[in-house]
Design a protein that fits this description.
By secondary structure, the chain is mostly helical. It is 91% helix and 0% strand. The protein contains two helices and no strands. The relative contact order is 0.18.
Length: 75
Amino acid sequence: MNPQGLAWLAAGLGVGITVFGVGTGIGPLVAAALEAGARQPESAKDARTTMIIGAALIEGVALFAMVICILLAVK
C-alpha cells in the first residue's frame, strides 16, 4: 500500500473518531435540554437557545478536526 493510501485511511479514521465524539457530546446535550423543557415548559425557550449554542460550538470543533484530517491526508 502506498503512503498516500495510508494517509487517506488515517484521515478516514480521524474523521470517524471525530464524528463519534460529536455524537457523544451532542446526544446528552439534547437530552438535557429536552428534559429541562419537559420539567419547566416556561423555560424551554432558554434551554433550547443554550443547547443550540453549545451544539454549534461542538460542531465547529468537529468541522475544524475534519478539515485538519483532510489537510494532513492531502499533504
